[in-house]
Amino acid sequence: MDIKVIVSLVGVSGIVIAAVMSSYGYMYRSRQEYKKNSRKVLYLLLEIRYSVMKSIADPKQVTDEYIQHLLSKFSARGINSDNDEIDGGMRELVGSHIHNVITLSISDIEERLIPEYDRALSEFAKDNPVVAYILRGREGFNNLIKLTEEYQDKSMEYCNDNIPIDWIKDVVAETAKEVKLGSYKDILETLDEDVIRLAKVCGRRDFNNCKKLISNSTSVGVLMNFKNLDRYIDKYINNLIIAANKNAQN
């Protein structure tokens, strides 16, 4: 083959390959940006899920779980006490604090997460409009929870004022509670499905991590992170034991 032809072929090949490289570089950057947007939406969706879990948590149940955890720590050090022996004032104080924590979670959704989620979802919609359409409106779950709570309160108020038969009131109250808890369960299941759906878009590692996170974050103790308090509880118990021993010697 003539040397000039070879040189021409090499030149043309260089041009073609350079064009492919440019295209590949653009597609790579686009894909990276797409994954970045996907992961940002995933992070915010997980934040919304966590806040929703806290906002629908029953303060009384969380208080009972906390006290039980506290008693188990004392029991491990040989200091046994029964749940029923806990002073009602302490229960009320702890319950009030937990209620305030839950209220703060609701404010957090409204003030920080929702506007940021809307912006991230709008960017994500440019690359994956169908999934973005499915995820649109999930930030409104908190308002649904609030409306459900208000409606149940008004319903019970109406029953107490207008129904004179106690056992009917009890049936209404129990049924309303079951319906409310059922609707909250549906909300969480929907959010879990959304998280898994989006995690698949982000990649296998995110998908596996999200499945593990969801399976490990269904109990109240995990939700409120009681174990994070263990070092403070242990220090308090140690101080009590030291003080008790000194007092016994005197």
What distinguishing features does this structure have?
single chain; mainly alpha; 9 helices; 250 residues
What layout of secondary structure does this protein have?
Elements: H1 3-55, H2 59-76, H3 88-125, H4 129-135, H5 141-162, H6 166-202, H7 204-215, H8 220-224, H9 230-249
Helix pairs in contact: 1-3, 1-6, 2-3, 3-4, 5-6, 6-7
Overall shape: it is flat
Domains, number: 1
Query: Could you tell me the radius of gyration in angstroms?
Result: 28 Å
Total DSSP helices: 9
What series of H and E elements makes up the topology? HHHHHHHHH
Tell me the β content.
Answer: under 5%
- What is the number of strand segments? 0
Which percent bin holds the helix content?
over 70%
What's the overall average pLDDT, rounded? 75
**End-to-end distance:** 108 Å
Q: Which structural class should the secondary elements be placed in?
A: mainly alpha
Largest sheet: none
Unreliable residue runs: 18-32
Can you give a write-up of this model?
- The protein is mainly alpha-helical and 250 residues long.
- The protein has helices spanning 3-55, 59-76, 88-125, 129-135, 141-162, 166-202, 204-215, 220-224, 230-249.
- The model is unreliable at 18-32 (pLDDT under 50).
